[in-house]
Amino acid sequence: MEENIMNWIYLITAGIFEIVWATTMKLSHGFSKLNFTILTIIGMIASFLFLAKATKLLPLSIAYPIWTGIGAVGSIIVGVTLFGDKISPITWIFITLLLISIIGIKLTTNN
Questions:
Q1: Which among 49, 54, 67, 99 would be 20 to 30 A from 90, CA to CA?
Q2: 35-70, pLDDT tens digit by residue?
Q3: Could you tell me the residue ranges of all domains in the chain?
Q4: What is the 3-state secondary structure (H, E, C) of the chain?
C-alpha cells in the first residue's frame, strides 16, 4: 500500500516538473537565456526520472496520460496567470473535461 502511494507521488511530482520545464522553456526565450535554459533541462530530466520511477509499478496506460494531463492543465494555468494567455470560454470547458478525465483515470484504476 505504501509503495503504491509513493508511485502516485512520483507521478504527480513528474507532472509538476513537466509544468516547471514548460514554464522555464518559455522564460528561456528560445534557449537564449542560459539560467532558464539550464532550469528547463533540469526540469525535463527530473520529470522523466520521476515518471520512470512511477512506471516501475504503475501501468504505462495509466501513468502516461496522467503525467501529460498534469503537465497540460498546469501549463495552461501558468500561461494564463503568469503570461497573460487568453483562453476562450469554450476552451475552459475542454480544459475542465481534461481535468475530469485525469481524475477519472485515477479513480477508476486499481493501482
A1: 67
A2: 999 999 999 999 999 999 999 999 999 999 999 999
A3: 2-107
A4: CHHHHHHHHHHHHHHHHHHHHHHHHHHCCCCCCHHHHHHHHHHHHHHHHHHHHHCCCCCHHHHHHHHHHHHHHHHHHHHHHHCCCCCCHHHHHHHHHHHHHHHHHHHCCCC
